Amino acid sequence: MNLKSKSSVITICVTVSIVAVVTIYFLSKKKALNPEKLDGMTKVTYVASKKFKELPDSEKSKYLSKAKISRNNINQLSQEQKKAFFINSLKFQNALIKKRMKKFYGMSHSEQERFLKAEAARIKKIRAMAKHNKQHKKKPVPSPEDIKLRMQCYLETIDAQTRAQMEEYRKRLKEKLES
Fold first, then answer.
1. Which comes out higher in pLDDT, residue 130 or 54?
2. pTM
3. HEC per residue, 30-80
């Protein structure tokens, strides 16, 4: 074999190796399903799945931000699936809670009061609309077991400082709702 032939063989081998490595990299990169192409039950069962749990956090976050998940669909999951759903999604919900608490407690006291007043007005409006529409559409209510499970997952996944901030926030919001 002459030098030109050896050089060609080496070039082909290197090219094939590079193509193989790039192909393996892109095939092994885990991507979430597109939630916009899924029905409601498939969305929630996917979040509760081992496949979803194994996704990179960036993919989980993208999926959860696009998926419009219905409480009614969550209520149809088995107890085991619900627990997996909450565990797989709470990390991202908790990040949003933490961000909101940081923003809220970064405000002056007067800004916090204005925010709470506006939030209470928004909630009262939603409650009034729900009461008015009650005869048309029944909103699914989580069972006591579901509430206990969700709270257990919540307490296990969020830090003590954020929990304390949330409790104080809820207490102050409740006062605004009752006034």
1. 54
2. 0.58
3. CCCCCHHHCCHHHHHHHHCCHHHHCCCHHHHHHHHHHCCCCHHHHHCCCHH
